[in-house]
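Attaching the record inline, Q. Sequence:
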Amino acid sequence: MFKRLSLRLTLLTVVLLVILYSITSLALYGIIRGFVMRSIDFNLRQAAYRVANTAVLTGIPSFASTGSPEINFVLADNGIYTSIADPDLASALENRLNRPMDRPTFFNFTYQGEHYRVFDLPIATGSGESAYVATVLDDTQTVRAMSDLRSVIVIVGLFGICGATLVGFILSERMLQPIRRAFQRQLEFVADASHELRTPLAVIQSNLGIVMEHTDQTVEENLEWLNNAHGEARRLAKLVQDLLTLARSDSERMPIERRPVTLDDLLERIHDLYETIAEMRGIELSVRAEDGLVVLGDRDRLHQLLVILIDNAIKFTDAGGKVEIAAARSRNQAVLSVRDTGIGIAKEHLERVFDRFYTVDTARSRHGEAKGTGLGLSIAKWIVEAHGGRISIASEGIGKGTTVRVELPLSPKRAAGWDEGDVTGKSEA
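Structure, as predicted:
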């Protein structure tokens, strides 16, 4: 599909280029040729009238009066007078001029491979006999120059078409690469989503099917199957919500409300929420943040970002381990980091952990949680990029912990017309 589209775009580019080049070339050639021919015709006409006037006034035509040594003349008035040195050329031209003309006429004349431009001017005589004066210019070089110009235009056009075809194909391929990647991501997204949705639906259906087969039993007796179905239904609801978030982010329909957010207050709020969970699992959760770090962003989305990172850190850290949340200033950026002493990630997986539905293995979780959907870090990456920041993950390998680093641009105080009362974080904590 994309190959055909690339060929069509290339063909359209070449056709448009040919049309534009043809119009431009024809216009340029026409302008140059028209200018040259008008100049030649003007000189021939002026010379013809001067020869005719001198012949009428003095009876002797004057070649010098033409003002141009390149122009010869033939005068027929009770005899033939000519300034053409070649008698054969003069004779051939006289035979051509013997055709009766009733008005001034320009015509082209070719003799022995040479090209001549001729102006034939009928003149009146007292005896009523036909007479004329013709001026002749050898414009062979001009004709050849115009022919060379046509050849150059055609050759340049052919090379241009070949080059445009090659360049157009390359550019169309490069232009379609983001579309191809997006389309491929969409196909993978739909396939992965279908796979992930199918599993909880199958579990729900199978457990409810068991319950329906035991209609003679009480709800308490079927509680195990109902709990299984309920747990998968909750997992399915979370998966659908994550999919909706990513779908909206792809279509740029997910609004980001930008207001000043104080990071140290936000981190303290997150610490309060997860401290109890960490203690229950024997994990030390600590926060270390500089005061006065303010970013311009959506507090709810930043809260969601930290929840995703801390939830992963706690999930993959054994009892007795540590999870540290830190926030510091680095020039004009706020650097957030979530570091754990958990089981870490193999280096070959680091480049793909932000891909949608990508999970390393189920053994990473030490607390019996259900396998994740692989969407959390994808959502985290979208949140960071939506705020104009960058996110990265580092790990020395299995058993050596993981560090997630987030860089967000700091908001300059009062640069956007806000004051301390506008800052969110502390009042909502």
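The chain is about 50% helix and 20% strand. Residues 362-368, 414-418, 425-429 have pLDDT under 50 and may be disordered.

More tomorrow.
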